[in-house]
Specification:
With 134 residues, the protein is of the alpha+beta class. Helix content is 60%, strand content 14%. A four-stranded mixed β-sheet has the order 1-2-4-3, sandwiched between helices.
Length: 134
């Protein structure tokens, strides 16, 4: 369902770009807008997770780090029957958490240090629905 919505959103934005490009620059503007939209869609689909994690200076954690976030995510992924995503901690005080990636096989889960201090393990587990990786 999410993939279908994402696909249609990307198509709609591409069409909008082409229409605006055509209005501003005729057929050459429409072609340039299409090329720009195609490049943006490619980068967004393949690299958006890496871009956002780098922007927040997220540090990957693994089982060797004894991270409670890693343990919680591993339990949730196992219960949901999903592959284990990469897990990141963001060095920020404001509480936030999100999942990103183009599919479950290329997923990443990130949480700020702030939310890890505020919520206990049960609250963290319950706050993320099982669909966070799909």
């Amino acid at each position: 369902m999410n993939r279908t919505r994402t696909f249609f959103l990307m198509v709609a934005l591409t069409i909008l770009f082409v229409v605006i490009g055509g209005a501003m620059g005729g057929s050459e503007g429409a072609v340039m807008a299409f090329v720009l939209a195609a490049a943006m869609n490619f980068i967004s689909y393949w690299f958006s997770d890496k871009i956002i994690l780098k922007r927040y200076a997220a540090a990957e954690v693994g089982p060797e780090d004894q991270s409670r976030l890693y343990r919680i995510v591993a339990e949730l992924a196992q219960k949901a029957g999903l592959p284990m995503p990469r897990v990141f901690v963001i060095p920020e005080k404001s509480p936030n958490a999100f999942a990103t990636g183009r599919n479950p096989e290329h997923a990443a889960v990130a949480a700020t240090e702030g939310i890890l201090k505020i919520l206990n393990d049960d609250e963290l587990s319950e706050s993320w629905p099982m669909s966070w990786l799909t």
